[in-house]
């Protein structure tokens, strides 16, 4: 059990590519942290630096308040689970789990009891003598987790562990992971590109883009108050609606491309005429009467998902795509115009040039 | 395997004819001819032959030389296979970890593969030349006076060194390819599980290279037994004297220098049986112990 601190950690590859530009945050003891972002954002590099598989170019990484920059990966007291399982194909499940412990010169009885315990937790008792080649994808990933658990590490590191599994298995293993974290109470650092995984697992999410940390917060922080247009767009499915315009003279409305004014329920302090992006989530739009309407959605097509209906269309006049999410089953005709409004707290206004949040 | 049904049943056999005729012409026919003539005493001038039964075999096995040449061949094969495999593995492991100049390093190690065995033998002779050879000078430096073609053990050393040098590149290529086919994440998992690189090599890397090593072992034994003929011939300059030779070289000497076609045929039949036994042994007993993914 330990905290992990990153102090202005940078990574520059020998070819000059800057993968991480100064990551600076602390992971608390026992926390489930998810690093999320699109591919190439530096999240895996960051995880691999914590593991010791990549050198740190600049800055310091501390595990349990001790600097580990130059500590051998095997001596950092961490365990890692890889995307493609990374099991030793020539060893049985039992040998796979015992390998790391044997190298720590642990006595045989202790190794056996730890393997037994992990196998029970992960329901692997019947497979201990099998080779990885004889197991299914889900079972292999359980073995990989077992190999991590038996080490009783200070920090568990997961590098997209569920990405190679099919959707159903992924959901099941996600729940198992969450339960495992609760049971072990250990510090988990988990990398994924899947925002649903991030939202459902994390105590706190660290969202990254192009080597920068965009925002750190609880899933609800990120959902309700995204710090930038990038975060707003990344978190939530279907993605947040963004309408482009310029801030009006009264600083409380946005003028769209066709000249129509979109009233904002709040006044901003930004200079009039600034190009802004107005964001609102599809589930935060609701029917409005003509006087309080902010958006006019012309229906294009409808996705009926059973529990929800997602209506796709565009903002009338500016052809800006819009989506609306309603609970239950609805079937509006294509071409219908819906007048929609949103509450002030659900409107997100970003400066177009920087993507920075303005309200 | 995909099954294809041909409308004319003889057509597939027609497609096999070129391959089969090559095998028949260059393998089965000479092999059958060797077996036949091993039971005859051939007239050196081709005027006739006399059936002598197993006499040729009896002569070969009871011959005083045969045992010592067989012994040398065994030692030679073991040494050549061992050194060319282990040195190639060492070089491949090193080549796999270097980051800068990896390509040129690999090319330098591979180019020897393109050298034909007799040319390799010639280059070897230059290296071991009595007055100019750098290797002779090197040996002199540590107080070893190398006399190739005169001293039995010095000649053996030269033949082994040249044969190993010639075989390292092909082993290197296969080992490097084998190393690069081990998933990066498996190696990284091992880095986290085991702090010692040497112990990681023997517990993870080498077992995963076993299929490659097994294949190369067969290739190398065959190489040492048969393909080193050119190197030996060049080093000995066709004059064996009392220098070390291998069984294959003796087949050539007895048949084409000694004109003892019957005895030479009997020796090649013995070699054929040896290779057959070796192949069966390797596939039956060793393949089981090798992990295949």
From TrEMBL, chain A:
GO cellular component terms, A-Z: ATP-binding cassette (ABC) transporter complex, substrate-binding subunit-containing
GO molecular function: ABC-type transporter activity; ATP binding; ATP hydrolysis activity
InterPro entries: AAA+_ATPase, ABC_transporter-like_ATP-bd, ABC_transporter-like_CS, ABC_transpr_MalK-like, ABC_transpr_MalK/UgpC-like, Mo/tungstate-bd_C_term_dom, NA-bd_OB-fold, OB_MalK-like
GO biological process, one term: carbohydrate transport
Pfam families: ABC_tran, OB_MalK
Tagged with keyword RNA-binding: no
Keywords, ordered alphabetically: ATP-binding, Cell inner membrane, Cell membrane, Membrane, Nucleotide-binding, Sugar transport, Translocase, Transport
Entry keyword Transcription regulation: no
Domain ABC transporter: 4-235
NCBIfam families xref list: PRK11650.1
Stated family: Belongs to the ABC transporter superfamily.
Protein name according to UniProt: sn-glycerol-3-phosphate ABC transporter ATP-binding protein UgpC
Organism the protein comes from: Tritonibacter litoralis
UniProtKB/TrEMBL annotation, chain B:
Pfam families according to UniProt: BPD_transp_1 (PF00528)
UniProt keyword Protein transport present: no
Domain ABC transmembrane type-1: 74-282
Gene3D superfamilies: MetI-like
Record flagged with keyword Nucleotide-binding: no
One example of a Gene Ontology biological process annotation: transmembrane transport
Domain of life where this protein originates: Bacteria
Transmembrane segments: 12-31, 69-93, 105-128, 156-179, 200-226, 266-285
Cited InterPro entries: MetI-like, MetI-like_sf, UgpAE/MalFG_permease
Sorted UniProt keywords: Cell inner membrane, Cell membrane, Membrane, Transmembrane, Transmembrane helix, Transport
SUPFAM superfamilies the UniProt entry points to: MetI-like
CDD domains, sorted: TM_PBP2
Location in or out of the cell: Cell inner membrane; Cell membrane
Membrane topology (UniProt): Multi-pass membrane protein
GO cellular component: plasma membrane
Subunit (UniProt): The complex is composed of two ATP-binding proteins (UgpC), two transmembrane proteins (UgpA and UgpE) and a solute-binding protein (UgpB).
Family from the record: Belongs to the binding-protein-dependent transport system permease family.
Function: Part of the ABC transporter complex UgpBAEC involved in sn-glycerol-3-phosphate (G3P) import. Probably responsible for the translocation of the substrate across the membrane.
Name this protein carries in UniProt: sn-glycerol-3-phosphate transport system permease protein UgpA
